[in-house]
Amino acid sequence: xxxxxxxxFLGSLAIIMAVLLCRYLPFTVEAQTETPxxxxxxxxxxxxxxxxxxxxxxxxxxxxxxxxxALALVxxxxxxxxxxxxxxxxxxxxxxxxxDPHSSFMNPEDFRELQIETKGKFSGIGIEITMKDRILxxxxxxxGTPAYQAGLMAGDQIVKINGQTTKNMSLTEAxxxxxxxxxxxxTLTINREGFTQPRDFSIVREIIPIRSIxxxxxxxxxxxxxxxxxxxxxxxDLRAMLKKMQQRLSPFKGLVxxxxxxxxxxxxxxxxxxxxxxxxxxxxxxxxxxPQQSMRFYARAGHKLESASVPLVVLINEGSASASxxxxxxxxxxxxxxxxxxxxxxxxxxxxxxxxxxxxxxxxTTALYYTPSGQVINEKGxxxxxxxxxxxxxxxxxxxxxxxxxxxxxxxxxGLTDKPWDRPITTAELDQDLPxxxxxxxxxxxPPKKLAQQPKG
Amino acid sequence: MExxxxxNQQQPGVFRRGRVWKVVAIFLILAAALYWQPLYSAGxxxxxxxxxxxxxxxxxxxxKFVYQKSEDEMMDGALRGMMNSLDPDSSFxxxxxxxxxxxxxxxxxxxxxxxxxxxxxxxxxxxxxxxxPAYRTGLRQGDxxxxxxxxxxxxLTGQEAARRFQGPPNTAIKLQVIRNGVVKPLxxxxxxxxxxxxxxxxxxVGDSLGYIRIGYFNDATHRDLASAIKALQRQPTPLRGVVxxxxxxxxxxxxxxxxxxxxxxxxKQIISTKGRIPETTQAYQGKVQDLxxxxxxxxxxxxxxxxxxxxxxxxxxxxxxxxxxxxGEKSLGLCGxxxxxPLPDGSALIMTVAQCYTVxxxxxxxxxxxxxxxxxxxxxxxxxxxxxxKPPSPDQDPWVIQAVEILKSGKPPKLAxxxxx
Lengths: 457, 421
Prior knowledge:
The complex is a heterodimer.
Chain A: H1 2-31, H2 37-40, H3 42-47, H4 58-77, H5 84-96, E1 104-106, H6 108-118, E2 121-124, E3 127-132, E4 135-141, H7 146-150, E5 157-161, E6 164-165, H8 171-178, E7 185-191, E8 199-204, E9 206-209, E10 213-218, E11 222-227, H9 234-248, E12 254-258, H10 267-275, E13 282-287, E14 295-298, E15 312-316, H11 323-333, E16 338-341, E17 349-355, E18 361-370, E19 386-387, H12 399-411, H13 427-431, H14 434-444, H15 449-453
Parallel strand pairs in A: 11-12, 12-15, 15-16, 16-19
Antiparallel strand pairs in A: 1-18, 2-9, 3-4, 5-6, 5-7, 7-8, 10-11, 13-14, 13-18, 17-18
Helix pairs in contact in A: 10-11
Chain B: H1 2-42, H2 44-64, H3 71-84, E1 91-93, H4 95-103, E2 110-111, E3 114-119, E4 122-128, H5 133-137, E5 144-148, E6 151-152, H6 158-164, E7 166-167, E8 172-178, E9 186-191, E10 193-194, E11 200-205, E12 209-214, H7 221-233, E13 241-245, H8 254-265, E14 269-275, E15 282-285, E16 299-303, H9 310-322, E17 325-328, E18 336-342, E19 348-357, E20 373-374, H10 398-408, H11 413-420
Parallel strand pairs in B: 12-13, 13-16, 16-17, 17-20
Antiparallel strand pairs in B: 1-19, 2-7, 2-10, 3-4, 4-5, 5-6, 5-8, 8-9, 11-12, 14-15, 14-19, 18-19
Helix pairs in contact in B: 1-2, 7-8, 8-9
C-alpha cells in the first residue's frame, strides 16, 4: 500500500517536473542563440505551416536569431512585462515601414475597421463628421438617413455622444462610438447656433450605404457626374445614374466625369467604371516581381452601354489618385474621352491586403499599374489632353483660403452637388469652376479640334 | 528473504523520509509553478506563435512586395519597430549606428537644441532648449517633425533622430513640421550651434521672491543650482519663497536629477526605481553636503508637458519631500533607467530596464506628474507661422505670476494644495 503510494507520488512528481522542463527547455535554448530558433524546436516546427521557413535565406535566418534573442531580452528584462504579441506587432510595423509609404500593417482591430469601411455600408446614423477648430462637427447628414430625419444639420457641433464628452476625442473614436449594431440607439448632444443650450437627439442606427456618386445636369443635354471615391456600389450607382440621365436628357449630348480630388478606392471598381464607357479593349494591366501579380483587365465586349458613344470629358487634378487615374488613363489611351484639368497625383501601385493567420493583415504594394499604352502611372500621373488650371487664387488668398471657402459654402448647402441632380447647373455656378466650364465648352463644340492636332502620346 | 528483511527494517525510515519528501516536493512544485508561471502563460508556446507571425509577414513581403528588399534592412526595421513600441526612451542601434556611438563621431560638437521622442508614430519635440537654435527659429514642444532635409521621417528612434540634429557647427538642417491646430506644414531651417552657457538662471521677482529657471540638466547643473540658491540667499531681504521653473525641460539623466534635487533636499530620499532585473530596483538618496539651503523656503515648481526625465525626478522629490506645490500642466511622464545591450551581430538595444517611482510610490513613466494647481489657461492662439512669439519675461509670465500669488498669500503650500483640490 505504502509502496504504491510512494511510486505513485514519485511518478507524478516526475511527470510534473518533466512537463515543466519541456516548457522551459526550448526557451533557454532560444535565449542562447546556438540552435536555430523556431525551426529547431519541435513545438514550433509543428506549428509552422507551409514554405515560410524553407524559403528564407541563411542571412534572414541569422538575423531572425538575433531578433529572437532581442525578443527574449525584452521579455526578461524590460522594466515591466509586455505581451509578446504587442512586441511582434511592433516588429512587423517596423519591417513594413522600411517598405514604401503605401504599405502598412494592420493589427486585428485595424483590419476589422478597414473591412467595415470598404464595404461601403455600416450601421450608423448617416452623418459625415469632422473636427473643426477641434470641435466635433457635422459636415453633412446624408439625405434619407436617420440623422437627416432626426433633423441634424450641417455645422451642428456634437458636444456629447451617449453622455460622454467629445472633448479630447479623436475622430476615429467618435466614429466608433456613433457606429453600432442595427436598430440600437445613440444619443448625440448637439450645440447649434440659435440653441440656448445643447439639445439631445436620440437616433436609431441603420445600415447606411455610402454613396460615392453625385450628379447634376446642364442645359443642352449635358450631364455631370462626380465620383468622390470608388466603393462597392460605385459601378451600379453610376450605371443607374447614366440610365436616369439617358431618360432625362434626350438627346444625351455629353458627359463630364469629374474625378477631381477622388483619392481612389477599389481596383475592380476602377475597371468596372471604365468598362461602363468602353465596349472593348485593355483597361489597365499590372506588373509585379511575382508573376502572379501580373494581371490584365479588359472591357467586357458586347455589353450594353448606357452612355454608348456620348462625348465624354474627364476632369482630373493633383488630387485624383489610384482608381481615378486608372479610369482616366484607360479612357485617354483608348481615345474614349478628352482628359482635362491638371496632372494627376501619380499613385499607381497595387496594394494587396494579405491577412495573416491571427487576424492582423499586411497591406503590401505588390504591383504597379500601367495604362493600355504601357505608361506607368506611379509617380508619373496622367497628363491631361487639355491643361486647365483651377482658378488661380486671387492676390492675398491662398489655395487653403479657397478650400475653406468652398467648405463653408458646402456647409451652407451651396456646393455644386448639394442640390438635386436634375436641377440644371446655372451659369453663375459654372463661373465658379473654371475646369468644369472649359469642359462644358468642349462638349458643346464637339469634336474638339485641339485634340486632333495633338501628337499621339 | 534477506531483501524483505532489509526492507522491513528500513520501512520506518523510508516512511519518514517519504513525508519529508512530500513536503519538499510540494514546496518544489509550488516554487516551480510560481517560478515558471510567467513563462508558462506568456512563454514558449505563445512566443513561437508570435515569431511565426513575424516569419509569415517576412515571407509574404519577400515574395510579394513589388521591389526586392534587403533582408538586413527589414530585420533592422523589425528590431527598431519592436523597441519603438516600448517607450520613447527604448531604441535600437543598427551595427553602423552602434559603431558610431562607440567611436563617438568626431566634430559632433554642435546641436539643434531639441529633445525628441517618438509619439504616436511621429517624431515629436519633447522640449526645445531655451534660446537654442531650434527654439529661436520657432520650434516648440509638441511639434511633430515630418521631414528632415526633405526626407520623410519614418520609424526612427528618438536617439537616432537626436544624432541627426547634431553635427559640425553651422550645419543647416531643413525641417518640415506639423503643429497641432495648424493645417499646413511649417518649414524651418535650424543651424547647429555648440551648446554654451549655464543651464541655470535665477533672478528676483518682486523684492522677496526668487525665480530659478533650469533649462536642461547636465553634469554641472547641481553646482550651478547651488550657486544660484546661495546668491538668492545673500539678497538683503529675506527670501519668502522660490518659483522653480522646470517647464520645457526634457533633457537630463536620472542621476543628474537626483544630484540637483539633493541640492534642495540634502540626504533625503529622492526617487526609487523598480525593474525586473534585481539590481535595477533601488532607492536614490541625496548627499548631505550637497544641500544649499540654510533654511527651507516655500517653493512652487512649474511643470508642463515638456517637463520630463531629470526634471520630473526633481519636481516629484520636491513635492514629496519639501512640500513643493506643482503648478501648470501634467508633465510628460518619461523617467527610467536605460541599459545598452549589444547583440551578436554588432547591433544593440537601448532598453528601459527600470521605471521611476516617487517617494510616495507614484509611477512617473507613462503617467506624468499631475499639477496640484492647474496653470491658468493661456488664451494666446496657436502660433500658425514660424514667427512663434517670444516667451514673456518671468515677471510677465502668467504662470509665474500665479505662482507668485500663491507664495505671497503666505499660505503654507500644503494648505494651498488642499484648498485647491
